[in-house]
Write a structure and sequence with these properties.
By secondary structure, the protein is α+β, with helices and mostly antiparallel strands. It has helices at 3-19, 51-67, and strands at residues 22-34, 37-48. The chain is built from two helices and two strands; from the N terminus they run αββα. Helix 1 runs antiparallel to helix 2.
Length: 72
Amino acid sequence: MQTRTLGIVLMVLGIVMMIYTGFTYVTKEKVVDLGPLEINQEKSHPVQWSPIIGGVLLVGGIVIMATSKGKK
């Protein structure tokens, strides 16, 4: 992978991580199973990160873009 492409990917990922600071996914868990009777419970699992991580990725992408040599 070229360094300019890596820089662009890091910048886009950093911007997205600063805008969206997390997501939640839902799983179903079996609570009771009595033959034909089954009771399920939905559990939500939040996944969150700090927007500072997105800022670090953005700055890292900018540094990589600035230091990479252009096509000659």
